[in-house]
């Protein structure tokens, strides 16, 4: 299923007058405050976020999985779903695949299909947290950190195989996330685990094509509950440094202990030119996989404020790979992703409104109250008309979620695919 321009135009029609009036009102207000509105809309219209293939089906908990009707049963259908998101929002122009769940059989056909939908292939993900059917060695006691040499070599080779697959699709980066760790004190030797992991990552890095990047993701706990080998940004950062110039830290919002100051982490990494990728989601406690901006929108805005500062002031940091990483079990997965994409655009728009020069002056004057006011004025601005304008400028939907429901997309997907298809993933 694909949405046509005509379908979107007619869905937009009834709301255009309201939008025009809201946009003009906000635009006047911002212009009076000295904000150049057009560059903000332009930046929003260019911002693209990769959709993870595993978010298109309903995710599970460790107790069970309740699949959603009309889930994509093939890689082609997953691309169709991302195509629908992109047609509506014009901000989901890439997909992040996961191997072996998304291993293509016909590469040319997959590339062609993605191109038709206007989709690029962002970072590709390896999987050494599950044993695959027929695997010789088990990852039960670790993968890249394994003391069992056979398991470790198998995990290294898997990552190199994932790079080969990514190359055939046009990907330019590999994301490595390890479940490796321990559940009990004394179970394994911390130093030995780290040495093995560094050695494995360096072997993978050595096998990367010259124009590829390596993203190293961290996470404090889960699935292991006593220690995780790459537990925090510092460990990821030192491993990235050990690998080389094209290895970077990847920050996943959900991979922090409660109340961690993620904006400060982002800022430090960009200063050092080592922030490579970003996984959006939201959480209350840990890696909760909740919709972006659903629990802590102000924290998301503060993170974006540092990202915008870094994008303007840190040429030493490469362009970031923006990705969503979430997987739900109670919502329509596409509706959830539309909500996430909206929240990302809203946070970015608000961060773009922050007057960085004025903030620097207030900081220099030690005017703490003014500093807070500058941030909160931006956060409290209803920027929805700017985000709408950016979408309309690219031919997207005025209100993506409204259009999705009005066009009855899920019913059409169920009609095409049947009720009981199940997407590969967790
Ligand atoms: Mn992640």
UniProtKB/TrEMBL annotation:
Keyword Nucleotide-binding in annotation: no
Key words of the record: Isomerase, Manganese, Metal-binding
Any one GO MF annotation of this record: metal ion binding
Alphabetical list of SUPFAM superfamilies matching this protein: Xylose isomerase-like (SSF51658)
Region Disordered: start-end pairs: 1-20
Biased composition (Polar residues): 1-10
InterPro entries linked to this entry: L-rhamnose_isomerase, Xyl_isomerase-like_sf
Matching PANTHER family: L-RHAMNOSE ISOMERASE
The protein, known as: Sugar isomerase
Organism: Neolewinella marina
């Amino acid at each position: 299923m694909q949405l046509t321009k005509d379908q979107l135009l007619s869905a937009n029609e009834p709301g255009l007058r309201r939008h025009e009036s809201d946009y003009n009102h906000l635009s006047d207000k911002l212009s009076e405050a000295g904000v150049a509105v057009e560059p903000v809309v332009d930046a929003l219209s260019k911002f693209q976020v990769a959709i993870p293939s595993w978010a298109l089906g309903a995710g599970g908990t460790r107790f069970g999985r309740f699949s959603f009707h009309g889930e994509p049963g093939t890689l082609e259908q997953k691309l169709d779903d991302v195509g629908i998101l992109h047609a509506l929002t014009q901000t989901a122009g890439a997909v992040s695949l996961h191997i072996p769940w998304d291993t293509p059989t016909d590469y040319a056909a997959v590339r062609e299909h993605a191109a038709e939908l206007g989709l690029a292939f962002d970072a590709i993900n390896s999987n050494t947290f599950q044993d695959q059917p027929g695997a010789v060695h088990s990852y039960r006691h670790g993968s890249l950190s394994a003391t069992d040499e056979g398991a470790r070599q198998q995990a290294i080779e898997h990552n190199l195989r994932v790079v080969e697959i990514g190359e055939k699709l046009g990907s330019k980066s590999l994301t490595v996330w390890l479940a490796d760790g321990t559940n009990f004190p004394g179970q394994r030797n911390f130093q030995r685990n780290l040495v093995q992991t560094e050695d494995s990552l360096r072997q993978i890095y050595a096998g990367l094509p010259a124009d590829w990047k390596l993203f190293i993701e961290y996470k404090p706990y889960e699935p292991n509950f006593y220690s995780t080998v790459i537990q925090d940004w510092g460990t990821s950062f030192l491993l990235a440094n050990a690998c080389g110039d094209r290895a970077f830290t990847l920050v996943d919002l959900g991979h922090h202990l409660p109340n961690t100051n993620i904006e400060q982490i982002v800022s430090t990494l960009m200063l050092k030119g080592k922030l490579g990728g970003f996984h959006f989601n939201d959480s209350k406690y840990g890696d909760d996989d909740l919709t972006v901006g659903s629990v802590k929108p102000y924290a998301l805005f503060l993170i974006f404020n540092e990202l915008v500062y870094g994008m303007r002031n840190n040429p030493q940091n490469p362009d970031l790979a923006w990705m969503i990483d979430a997987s739900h079990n109670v919502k329509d997965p596409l509706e959830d992703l539309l909500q996430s994409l909206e929240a990302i655009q809203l946070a970015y728009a608000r961060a773009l409104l922050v007057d960085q020069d004025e903030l620097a002056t207030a900081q220099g004057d030690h005017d703490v109250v003014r500093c807070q006011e500058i941030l909160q004025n931006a956060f409290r601005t209803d920027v929805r008309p700017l985000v709408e304008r950016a979408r309309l400028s690219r031919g997207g939907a005025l209100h993506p979620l409204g259009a999705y429901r009005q066009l009855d997309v899920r019913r059409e997907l169920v009609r095409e695919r049947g009720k009981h298809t199940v997407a590969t993933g967790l």
